[in-house]
Amino acid sequence: MCGVGCSNALQWEAVPGSLVLLAEEGPSLMYRAQATVRGAPERGRLTSAHRPHGDAGGARSWSSPLFRSSLVPMVLADDDRQYVAANAAACLLLRLPEDEVLKRRIDDLTPPENRSQVGPMWDAFIRDGTQRGTFELLMPDGPRVQVEYSATANVRPGRHLSILIFPPGRREHRLSNQSPARSLLTVREREVLGMVAMGMGSSWIAATLGVSSSTVETHVRHCLDKLGARNRAHAIALGLRAGEISLELDADM
Q: For the chain, what is the domain count?
């Protein structure tokens, strides 16, 4: 259940070279933020040529193009639960520039009444290696937002990745309950949507797969139609939630 002040109407919109977050807060206030998304690599997998140099333990060393360009909010924390990297989508979600995000710990974005649970949850996460569920974020400017998260420990030694998406609304809950267990998307559609989720444009995807840009756009339209999505960003969220796609970053980044 979302806490007091939680924004229940949040929507991502992908526009060329940018990401926009729209959030309705109360009956009349519409929050809008936009950030430039850095260019994605032309290949679906990160190679050593894409890895940044220097600052071996800090945020900038984890500035992989796939992490930075993804339309899905992602954050990286260290062993002390201190944030050490956040992509553009995460900064929009938190309404902070990355430099401000990096001054905070997971505990700082947890409502006071829930902070006693953070330590035990973190210990279980590090022990098990993965964790997923629903978490209520206390936004730096006051409101609370409930997100679903999927976390992977030690994507690099001492670096722990969390992927954040908004929980489904009532309509999406009904649709998911009515959906059959089998996959809605074809193998190629899942591949294309996964690349879109990592911030790759149609031309990059076409070059990677050896197909035309129009073919890529056709696959994207099929994904939207089959998932009942409003736009690409909505399709990514629905695809992640339904298990149609996953975001795979190389473990040796």
A: 2
Residue 41 lies in a domain: yes
88 and 106 share one domain: yes
Model pTM?
Answer: 0.65
- Same domain? 157 vs 198: no
Mark out the alpha helices in 71-117 (DSSP H runs).
88-94, 98-101
DSSP assignment, residue 1?
Answer: -
Strand partners, 149: 133, 164
| 64 within a domain of the structure (yes/no) | yes
3-state secondary structure of 84: strand
Residue 99: Cβ within 10 Å count:
10
Q: Which residues neighbour 53 within 8 Å (Cβ) at sequence distance 6 or greater? A: 61
Domain extent, residue 206, equals 171-242
Helices and strands in the chain, H and E counts? 9, 8
Residue ranges in the chain whose pLDDT is less than 50: 1-61, 171-175, 178, 180, 251-253
